[in-house]
Amino acid sequence: MVLHTMSQTVVLGVIGSDAHVVGITILEQAFSAAGFDVINLGVQTSQEEFAEAAVAHDAEAVLVSSLYGHAEQDCQGFHGVLEDAGVDAHTYIGGNLAVGQDDFEQTRATFEELGFDRVFDSETDPEEAIAALRQDLQITTTETERATISS
Amino acid sequence: MIRDERIPADELRRIDEEIRADWPTGADVDFDEAIAYHESLPASKRFADVLEEATKPLLQPRAGVPRLDDQVELLEYLHGEGKADLLPTTIDSYTRDNEYEKAQEGLENARESGEDTLNGFPAVNHGVSGCRELIEAIDAPIEVRHGTPDARLLAAITFAGGFQSFEGGPISYNIPYTKRHGLEETIEKWQFVDRLAGAYTERGVRINREPFGPLTGTLVPPSIAIAIMLVEGQFAATQGVRSVTLGYGQVGNVVQDVAALNALQKLGDEFLPDEVVVTTVFHEWMGGFPPDEARANGVISLGGMTAAIARPDKVITKSPQEFQGVPTKEANASGLRTTRQVIDMAIEQEIDIDGIAEEQDLIERETRCLMDTILEHGDGDVVQGTIKAFDSGALDVPFAPSDSARGAVLPARDDDGRVRIFEWADLAMDDDIKEIHRARLSRRADTEGRDQSFRMVADDVDAISDGKLIGRPQNAGDV
């Protein structure tokens, strides 16, 4: 296992026309507290803005949030845009990804097919996403860090 | 440079003509004819009079569907079965973005399919005559409720269409709703809306204006909400509005909510000019709701109880289906009836709760700090002061998506569930007040055996939908 000691950058934002800001505000705080450099693009962020920020900051991960039910439409072609910009980052998406009470496993499959590495529902704690990213980036945590995160 | 000054008559006419050209229905607006129309309406439809003369809190739901006949049916149901005193017409999202073409498509789809393809009533597309059909069909006052940064055409059409109350304002319909509209831009546009309401008022048709108090709807500290209400009330008064309803969203701690509503009325009367009649509106909990209807009714009932003690002039009710989004008309009416039952049972009781006066005093002191900093930033001008104070971070709103606010202030509940400020950032506040908040949050941290951190904020955001008021740590046992 490779031990990364330098800080890692994640790009965070709400995609499309969505203005729900509470979730990413909490994610920004949580990822910062966990030692990541967080570039928070805020709400109403376009695919191109995600790609530009990922390039500019050499991001290890692009975290997309959506709560208004139009995520599938907003994410069409997103991974093509990232690829064209030369972004090689882990991509996660989370929130209320479909309108109504859909089966989440089906939603997960839809977004994995669109190219996302991980798909989270709206009940996910920030710690779960942080743990997943640490695993994907093969970052080990010290005991003290672990204690902070799980407290 | 834009200032808190009344738009001159020729400028009002010029903007009015310009914006009415944005969509064909704008041509049907005729100011003098509209005054005559309002004069023809019965007393039961005069919003400001009905609201200001009421002796106990009036109830109002939220509701809007695309088709006119469906909207009539929905409002008749909420008036008849829900016993709503005041009715709403909630406007769709395309209209809020000034996308009248898309709203037209949605309206035509709705007419063909019978489905609700828009999330509200596209009043601009229905035009003056469509609005009047609605006003004539319902025997109660109706307010326009929306979330539109540039609401000039919507105001021109709905005022001429017979509506006498209009929600929103340049801060409250900007900061929580959109990322890229500058404050200077929305203030300029809302000066027109307020001036138009003022022009009707001068002709004897008092249009009621209601700044949107809950802002981002998520743990907004009362003093921040109240300061913004006072600012928007002042903007409206300058343009000639004489009936202003200041808003506040329930935070769930009864003492703090009652104290905040008391402070809102008191400071409103103090800060706004004498010729303005100031009323208040209490919004039942605007944050995340429990996912089942029984628990949601509990949240709604606590709002009713709070309203019975604080006696605001109006209560905006929630429905037990809030968790899922837009409710059925039956659920919407049931939220009204639940609220009414609790208010009517509680309002004749004398309920004295310790601590309300102290909390109100704290809220008033905080609000005065914010008002002082706004006036200092603007060298006495409240428009410039607002723009500059948001720019410097001296004025801020938690969880604000807008680029016009820092959104750096973070709230958290104290050990008693009152909303305090955990992260002040650059918010202008006296040190002794900051110390009170710090001490209250530190007591909670002690109770929970953890440090003050953003985790508390995150836990608090989910707490009510999870069944509690305060986001206690899961593994802390029975604290």
Question: Care to describe what's here?
Answer:
Chain A: Its cofactor is adenosylcob(III)alamin. Chain A: One of its GO terms (molecular function) is cobalamin binding. The complex is a heterodimer of chains A (151) and B (479). Chain A is α/β, with parallel strands linked by helices and 151 residues long. Chain A has a single domain (9-150), classed as Rossmann fold (3-Layer(aba) Sandwich). Chain A has 7 helices and 5 strands, in the order βαβαβααβαβαα. In chain A, strands 2-1-3-4-5 form a 5-stranded parallel sheet, with helices on both faces. In chain A, strand 1 (9-14), helix 1 (22-33) and strand 2 (37-40) form a beta-alpha-beta unit. By secondary structure, chain B is of the alpha/beta class. Chain B has one domain (9-346): TIM Barrel (Alpha-Beta Barrel), CATH 3.20.20.240. Chain B is built from 17 helices and 10 strands. In chain B, helix 4 (68-80) runs parallel beside helix 13, helix 9 packs across helix 10 and helix 11 (254-271) packs across helix 12. The N and C termini of chain B lie far apart (54 Å). Chain A binds chain B through residues 14, 19-22, 25-26, 29-30, 33, 42-44, 101, 126, 151, and chain B through 176-180, 216, 218, 324, 399-401, 403, 407, 410, 450-451, 453-455, 457-458, 461, 473.
